[in-house]
Amino acid sequence: MMAFLIANITVTDPERYSLYRAQVPKIVAQYGGRFLVRAGAVHRLEGDLGVDRFVVIEFPSPEAARQFYDSPEYAPLLRLRMETAKSQVAIVEGYTTA
User: Fold this and answer.
1) How many DSSP H helices and E strands does the chain contain?
2) Residue 98 placed within a domain
3) The domain containing residue 56 runs over which residues?
4) Is residue 95 packed enough to be buried (19+ CB in 10 Å), middle (13-18) or exposed (0-12)?
5) pTM of the shown model
6) Of 8, 2, 16, 13, residue with least CA distance to 53
7) Mind listing the pLDDT tens digit for each residue in 13-59?
8) Is the Cβ–Cβ distance between 38 and 55 less than 8 Å?
9) Number of structural domains in the chain
10) I need a surface site. Which of 3, 6, 15, 18 has the fewest CB within 10 A?
11) In what order do the strands lie in the sheet with 3-11?
């Protein structure tokens, strides 16, 4: 079952955060992930979602998403993101028709 890593990110240090942005795609791909949304414009239709910089990454499974997030390759970038942004992150299982 596919899964999505969904993040809402408010960047507090744009210069250092750009280092994170430049390095993370390679590690996402290494764990079978692909970006579906990467901070595009948000067009609010109802309510205040509190969305700033929105990211959606598709993975082949919840386990693959978690392996990416917990990986030794991502660890230094996770620290960098936590130092340069405020984030809310979740893994959401995809919809299946069975």
Assistant:
1) 3, 4
2) no
3) 3-93
4) exposed
5) 0.91
6) 8
7) 999 999 999 999 999 999 999 999 998 788 888 888 788 889 999 99
8) yes
9) 1
10) 15
11) 34-38, 53-59, 3-11, 85-93
